[in-house]
Amino acid sequence: MNTTNQLYPVAQLDAARQQTDPIADAVIKEVFKEYSFHQLNEWLGKISVNGSPLPAQMPGPVKEYFEQTAALPAFANSLQMKQGAVFFAKYFGSVLSLLGSYSLPYCYAAADGAQVLWISQRIYQDTFRRLQETGQFVLDVLHKDAFAPAGKGIRSIQKVRLIHAAVRLHLLKSGQWNLDWGQPINQEDMAGTQASFSYIVLEGLTKLGFYYTPSEANAYMHLWKVIGAMLGVTTELLPGTTKEAYWLDRRIKQRHFRKSDAGIGLTKALLECLQHNFPSSIGVGFVPSYVRYLLGNEVADLLEVPPGDWSQAMINPMKTANSFNSVFNPFKSSGSKYMADMLPPGHGASNPPFTVPIRLGS
Predict the structure, then answer these.
(1) Is residue 55 part of a domain?
(2) What is the mean pLDDT of residues 215-226?
(3) Whole-prediction pTM
(4) Distance CA 318, CA 204 (A)
(5) Which of 97, 115, 179, 190 has the fewest beta carbons closer than 10 A?
(6) How far apart are CA 297 and CA 214, in angstroms?
């Protein structure tokens, strides 16, 4: 039996870079033999609630996909999932902020995986929309009723999985994809993204001074493991505990974190978007200071995040207040209003639809 530090060996991760999502890939290839990107988006736009009927005009292969991928994985523990959703509700403002200011740029440091967003132009030309979509997806899948018939979690996961397959097909046909990077949106990169939305968020909460129990953290990890499996990531790659996630993160960081034009460009676009939506009374210099603090200087330097200014002095008082509130007022976090303001307005309210970028069809 493997010891913890033997998790995710090089051979396993090398193989994972050549593996994608056969189920979603097969559906997309079949659909685009006869239908367009516009038609796929039209169908996706009509699906939002888990229990809602599928559009009558939807082709058979797509209907079968939605029917066959709606079930929770066998390992799903409903109690842990509920506890994970409660944990998210407890810190939702800070979690949403961390996704934009920590998880996303952390992913950009993985040079090969960052090429997907760079070549497909999914972030540096659509930064505002991308952040809205990310926030909406997280709200859909982490809601307490996300997997109930009236929830939106299952449908959101299914749609994002198809979008990944469509982007993957486009990139492979574009002539711009270098197979030395592995397959686009491959299993290793998807597992790394899942870890950044779960484990890295937990690390971020710790850096911001919040206290939480190991059982809370592992419930949150379990919920994201369920989400990852439904997104098509193989169970063997999905960490279910913070210890497992630590080793996955360490392996990926050693293998892929390096300076790249893609990572630098994506981070620059993200910072500009966050600064544009940040309250001017605080000072836009706080955004790079805050992002650099979360990433740490080593990763921030890879992404050429500007150095912090005087506003970084605000971080320690924020941490102190968060620590106090974690103990005495656990549903309130100091600074959460300002951190949540770093996301574009409308997250969770405008309910942006998950669609395939139209330019991919051109």
Answers:
(1) yes
(2) 97
(3) 0.90
(4) 13
(5) 179
(6) 27
